[in-house]
Specification:
Blueprint (H helix, E strand, L loop, with lengths): L1 E3 L5 H9 L2 E3 L7 H5 L2 E3 L13 H7 L20 E6 L17 H12 L8 E6 L12 E4 L3 E3 L7 H10 L9 E4 L2 E6 L6 H20 L6 E6 L11 E6 L5 E6 L7 H11 L2 E2 L3 E5 L20 E2 L16
Parallel strand pairs: 1-8, 4-5, 9-10, 13-15
Antiparallel strand pairs: 2-3, 4-6, 6-7, 7-8, 9-11, 11-12, 12-14
Helix pairs in contact: 1-6, 4-5
């Protein structure tokens, strides 16, 4: 078993991203916000110069009317384990990547988990995350939280065995080639083919996260991944953060309505200090029942330090949110 830390060069990733960034300007946005709101084109499509108009930004981006339209707490269904299958680039995922006949591995794993759902004692959620160039993961790698284990190179023929031995029997330490993960992991929904809001907001957030992580010298401690649909398109940008809490437990906290302007606070307060950002907090991965077997109320913020500071948004006085 190896101890694995996210050690990819975020600076090099940032350089690759910058080669295909195009910026848009709106007269209603501050200059600082303009800098942190890039539109990302895949390198293979960089010859097709494209920008979003102000109208598109207001429909799909961080200025859309539904932003801040409701309280986010309680918008995450109860679950206890999160499995991420690393598979190709988010830019080529079909809308229903877990059910696509052209993407057999995600379909097989999703089907196996659903079929054995009643036999898996720990309620498990499956999400697809990006693999390949620019990441430390290959197609078929599986990341499991809160166990913080990476299983390497899952193949189609090994799916049933993986589900039985790891997810059902809990034999995590003895199954196949695997590494123990360390550090913090941030997953950003960027599943554009599923919902354009996630594609627009997710790519901008990933770019900003990489920039701020590099500025803080945390590239060996924080790993950022694009991920598939996690539920709640209308809450984009959607972010899940797996990092140790004040007691050292690995928690998976979900945030919604996250903008590039919120990224420094997410890094400095949530990961740096263990403080939750209440205004953006959707819920968390955690036990469904307490030690006495009683159902845990997931709608409430856990007993931890909470950041309630509200930042002034440059457009909050001229756009009315709705549900």
């Amino acid at each position: 078993m190896r101890l694995w830390r996210p050690n990819r060069s975020l600076s090099s990733v940032g350089e690759n991203l910058c080669e295909s960034l195009f910026f848009f300007r709106s007269p209603k946005l501050s200059s600082s916000y303009l800098i942190s709101s890039p539109i990302l084109l895949h390198s293979s499509e960089s010859h097709r110069v494209s920008t979003f108009s102000t109208a598109e930004d207001e429909k799909y981006g961080f200025r859309r009317p539904e932003m801040y339209g409701r309280s986010l707490s309680g918008t995450v269904g109860a679950y206890e384990r999160h499995v991420f299958l690393c598979y190709r680039s988010h830019e080529v995922w079909p809308s229903r990547v877990e059910g696509s006949d052209a993407d057999l591995l995600p379909k097989l794993l999703s089907s196996a988990i659903k079929t054995r759902e009643k036999e898996i004692s720990v309620k498990t959620k499956l999400t697809i995350c990006e693999a390949g160039e620019g990441t430390e993961h290959s197609d078929g790698d599986v990341l499991v939280f809160p166990e913080m284990i990476k299983y390497r190179g899952l193949k189609d023929e090994g799916v049933e065995s993986f589900v039985e031995k790891v997810l059902m029997d809990g034999k995590q330490q003895v199954y196949g080639a695997h590494d123990v993960l360390a550090g913090s992991y941030i997953f950003v929904c960027a599943h554009r083919s599923r919902d354009k809001r996630c594609g627009v907001c997710g790519t901008a957030l990933i770019t900003k996260l990489i920039e701020e992580i590099e500025l803080r010298g945390l590239k060996d401690q924080i790993c950022v991944h694009a991920c598939s649909h996690i539920g709640g398109h209308k809450y984009a940008g959607n972010v899940i953060v797996f990092s140790p809490d004040l007691d050292g437990r690995i928690m998976g906290h979900w945030y919604g309505y996250v903008t590039p302007d919120d990224v420094p606070e997410l890094l400095d307060r949530h990961i740096g200090k263990g403080e939750l950002i209440e205004r953006l907090w959707r819920g968390r991965m955690g036990r469904i029942n307490d030690e006495d077997g009683k159902k845990v109320d997931e709608d409430k913020l856990p007993s931890a330090e909470v950041s309630k500071e509200t930042k002034n948004k440059p457009w909050e006085n001229d756009i009315q949110g709705n549900n």
